[in-house]
Specification:
The structure is a single chain. With 304 residues, the protein is an alpha+beta fold. It has 2 domains: 143 residues, Fructose-1,6-Bisphosphatase, Chain A, domain 1; 142 residues, D-Maltodextrin-Binding Protein, domain 2. The protein has 10 helices and 14 strands.
Length: 304
């Protein structure tokens, strides 16, 4: 099946998600990590998306956030969907921006991505080598091509850079804190709004398409494939890039892993990406030195 046909079929199931999101009987429970929760709405959305996708595409595999621990990666399945039923669950429970994200992997290639920006009511979809399209959740047939932005900003000073604090690891939190301090001293305007998938898409779209809330770069040191697969497809189709802590673009293996914890930096401008990666390396080095200097501290004991 062609990538375009797959994306169009997946788009057709999104309007139902608006109905599920509007259900107000929300209960929540804590998950692994700090300030990491799941709601009944997450579970209902995942059940709907996963079940519907598997019916529409019987020979596919769905890797979704709430059932990832039970999922065994099947290398021989060509078509995979990487699903986050709600990216930004804490935001969702507090009325802040949140999104539904569906990454599409076809024949071991990131072939498409769909992100529903719930509060804005806008759905973005990428088709590999065919561009990015936007439509209103209430007018799914009216797909409009998204103009590629210029991504001109390459200086950290006065740039808007978004980030979030990692859930899982004290060391990653300390590296994030070091990066924050360095970027602050370099004159960046640092924002924490989220969710991460939407932050990446805002970078991808640039000021030409998100004039009120675009950003120049984003980093996070503790996310999962479902946070990034869809938005990475959109970012790359609009000439941006996303790299891991090895300085290389995130691989298809990383973007389909049910278990890997991912640290990344993303930007539309390659020079901005290089500068942020250099700051990451400096920050990581500083935290390692701090750990060695204070190796007997309870704060760092678990990291040794």
């Amino acid at each position: 099946m062609e990538n375009k046909e797959i994306v169009l079929k997946v788009l057709s199931i999104l309007p139902k998600t608006k109905e599920i999101l509007n259900l107000r009987d929300i209960t929540s429970e804590e998950k692994e990590g700090v300030a990491n929760i799941v709601t009944s709405t997450d579970k209902k959305l995942e059940e709907y998306l996963k079940g519907t996708l598997l019916k529409m595409f019987p020979n596919s595999q769905v890797i979704a956030e709430e059932s990832a621990e039970e999922t065994k990666f099947e290398d021989n399945v060509e078509l995979k969907f990487i699903v986050d039923p709600i990216d930004g669950t804490t935001n969702f429970t507090n009325g802040w921006p949140h999104a539904i994200a569906i990454g599409i992997v076809n024949n071991k290639e990131l072939s498409g991505g769909i992100l529903y920006d719930v509060i804005a009511g806008t759905v973005y979809s990428a088709i590999k080598d065919k561009g990015v399209y936007a439509c209103d959740i209430d007018d799914m047939a009216n797909l409009k091509s998204v103009v590629k932005p210029k991504h001109e900003t390459e200086k950290i000073k006065k740039s808007v850079i978004t980030f979030d604090t990692p859930f899982y690891d004290v060391k990653d939190f300390n590296i994030t804190n070091e990066m924050f301090k360095k970027l602050y001293l370099d004159g960046a305007s640092l924002k924490v709004v989220g969710p991460i998938a939407l932050d990446v898409v805002k970078i991808a779209l640039g000021k030409e398409n998100r004039p009120h809330d675009y950003a120049n770069a984003v980093f996070h040191l503790g996310v999962r494939a479902w946070d990034l697969a869809a938005s990475t497809a959109i970012l790359r189709e609009l000439d941006g890039e996303i790299i891991g802590i090895d300085g290389k673009p995130l691989s298809i293996e990383t973007l389909t892993s049910p278990t890997e914890k991912i640290a990344f930096i993303a930007s539309g401008n390659s020079k901005m990406l290089e500068k942020l990666y250099e700051i990451y390396q400096q920050s990581e080095k500083q935290v390692k030195e701090d750990i060695r200097a204070d190796k007997d501290s309870d704060e760092y004991g678990e990291l040794r």
